[in-house]
Amino acid sequence: MSKFRKLAFLAGLFGATLAAHAQDTAKKAEAAEGPVTDAALSTDARAGSRLGLGRVATPDEVAAWDIDVRPDGKGLPVGKGTVSDGETIFAEQCASCHGDFGEGRDRWPQLAGGFDTLTRDRPVKTVGSYWPYLSTVYDYVHRAMPFGNARSLSNDDVYALTAYVLYLNDIETDEDFELSNENFTAVTMPNAGTFVPDDRAEEQHYKDDADPCMTDCKPGPVKITMHAQVLDVTPEGGGDESGPAGGSVD
Amino acid sequence: MDSRSTPDQADASRRAFLKSTLALGGAGLAVAAGTRTAAAEGDPKITELQDWNRYLGPGVDAAPYGLPSEFEKDVVRRDVPWLTADATSSVNFTPLHALDGIITPNGLCFERHHGGVAEIPPQDHRLMINGLVDRPMVFTMEDLYRFPRENRVYFLECAANTGMEWRGAQLNGCQYTHGMVHCVMYTGTPLRNLLNEAGLKSSGKWLLAEGADASAMTRSIPMEKALDDCLVAWKMNGEALRSEQGYPVRLVVPGWEGNMWVKWLRRLEVGDQPWEQREETSKYTDLLADGKARKFTFQMEVKSVITAPSPQAPVTHGKGRTVITGLAWSGNGTIRRVDVSLDGGRNWHAARIDPQSFPKAVHRFYYDFDWDGSELLLQSRAMDEKGFVQPTKEALRKVRGANSIYHNNGIQTWHLKTDGALENVEVS
């Protein structure tokens, strides 16, 4: 049977099972319908019947927590900040980890550079070289940075920092540039448009492997091509340098 | 023995026979030899009175919340410090090599945090629903406990599980190569029940889930999935969620990458398009060889690994009866079959799955055989209920390159040597 006929067959079987299950559920529901009371109904969370739990959120509560920003600018607060403002804030709040120029200190994330490296052996994925949307910069800095002191930046601080990160990446070259909720969506990121939908299920190896080989699957002897022990980067357990990897059960 | 030797399977058994004969008095078979000697002379563990035969042990109040035997103290989560810049945005690994069955003990479930472990008093926790709903809502934990409950067993696998192995064999032990996965029974209420209380508008196509921790983790989830099988869960394996697993409440997104299972869940926003947050643009997008990147790669693919024997669980009993065991799982549903190879994928044998497991949960498999003491190249290959077969790493790299970071479900090879030690290798 070809892979796709087999898949279709399976899908058919699966569908039939689901249908049978649905029928079964419907029958049970019908059986339960007879003596049903209002009290019994209130434990049944079928669409449309509310349980009356929770309370309505106030506008202030929603405003306090809903700070997310979308690529189309939805969610941006009113505010503004310049590249030079951002440089000052960055030096005080960010550079100790990310470096003065967004180059990243030690193992901390690099924010700038890495252009044209995405097809290389060791790509450098930064805001400039990889991130598709500026909204993500604003949103993420606002909600989660500085690391260890999140939500400490004002709306204007975040506009200024976002402008400075654009400047570090040469996306904006004017030091006097001011980013605001008004001009925010006019900025286009270099790597926008290179993200593609998930098509893993269509990969050829999945199509080829419908009926996997069981015997004599490879011609000739199987050779070892790579060893983890040559690299030797696994933590050792119990201070025994010569022993197997950490967590050994022997 | 020389770990760099290339085993030629054609004459491996002859060579291995010689080596295992030489090893008979050595460390590899010391356990078996010791047991045999004791049996001949009368085992002192039987013939002599032991302390635990005579003296009383601790009473019932010694451990109000019990811990494993002291002899199991090495069965713990472990981390790899060089993987990340800081322990508060990092990962550790489930000791898969030492576990059996399909349920992961709560204290051993791997951790992945982006802002450390939030410690939230349950009476102070709130869950908000806003956006494209008839009425924005706030729920306390007390409110959540009054929703109809369901119990479901699901695996949770980090999208980056096995990610360090994209370029080749790197870490030596399945705890490190495959330990960003756990499987527990969750108790909670279907997410659709909560959304129903707020009243979904028909324009609501996406859901943003947000955590209450310092990373304020956010992910966009298609509404179809949210209404299908997602749970808002507050118990795991019968007890409250562990703090490191999102106490007091987390999202359960069956079959999908662990990053989406937002912990310390505090807000659900309904919208008409995805938010493109940091965790679905900068992270959890999969770079391909041509420089493009896949996004919204939600589902975890069919996968398996032999957990024992493995580099951290060598064979200590010598030749003879040997149990190979491992885990298989798929975001597509149940595992239909697992095959095991002893010769690096030339020949395969159907393994036994026990127990019959649940959709989108791990499945435990066994392959029992007589080891002749020769070098083996152990592999497992899973097939799921939709007919997807676990690929080789080579097949994956051929279509994706080596820089995807996430979603490495390639077949794992362990090199079993004649002395019973194992190593993580790749084969041709």
TrEMBL record, chain A:
PANTHER family: ALCOHOL DEHYDROGENASE CYTOCHROME C SUBUNIT, BLL4482 PROTEIN-RELATED
Species of the source: Jiella pacifica
Family matches, as SUPFAM superfamilies: Cytochrome c
Gene3D superfamilies: Cytochrome c-like domain (1.10.760.10)
Keywords annotated in UniProt: Heme, Iron, Metal-binding, Signal
Domain Cytochrome c: 81-169
PROSITE patterns (alphabetical): CYTC (PS51007)
Xref: Pfam families: Cytochrom_C
Protein known as: C-type cytochrome
Domain of life the protein comes from: Bacteria
InterPro entries documented for this protein: Cyt_c-like_dom, Cyt_c-like_dom_sf, Cytochrome_c-type_DH
GO MF term set: electron transfer activity; heme binding; metal ion binding
Residues spanning the signal sequence: 1-22
UniProtKB/TrEMBL annotation, chain B:
EC assignment: 1.8.2.1
UniProt feature coiled coil, ranges: none
Location of the Moybdenum cofactor oxidoreductase dimerisation domain: 295-412
InterPro entries: Ig_E-set, MoCF_OxRdtse_dimer, Mopterin_OxRdtase_euk, OxRdtase_Mopterin-bd_dom, OxRdtase_Mopterin-bd_sf, Sulfite_DH_SoxC, TAT_signal
Gene Ontology biological process terms, A to Z: sulfur compound metabolic process
Top-level EC class: oxidoreductase
Keywords: Metal-binding, Molybdenum, Oxidoreductase
Co-factor(s): Mo-molybdopterin
Keyword Metal-binding carried by entry: yes
Domain Oxidoreductase molybdopterin-binding: 114-276
Gene Ontology terms for molecular function: heme binding; molybdenum ion binding; molybdopterin cofactor binding; sulfite dehydrogenase activity; sulfite oxidase activity
PROSITE patterns: TAT
Gene3D superfamilies linked: 2.60.40.650, Oxidoreductase, molybdopterin-binding domain (3.90.420.10)
PANTHER family with a match to the protein in the record: SULFITE OXIDASE, MITOCHONDRIAL, SULFITE REDUCTASE
Name recorded for this polypeptide: Sulfite dehydrogenase
Annotated organism of origin: Jiella pacifica
Gene name for this UniProt entry: soxC
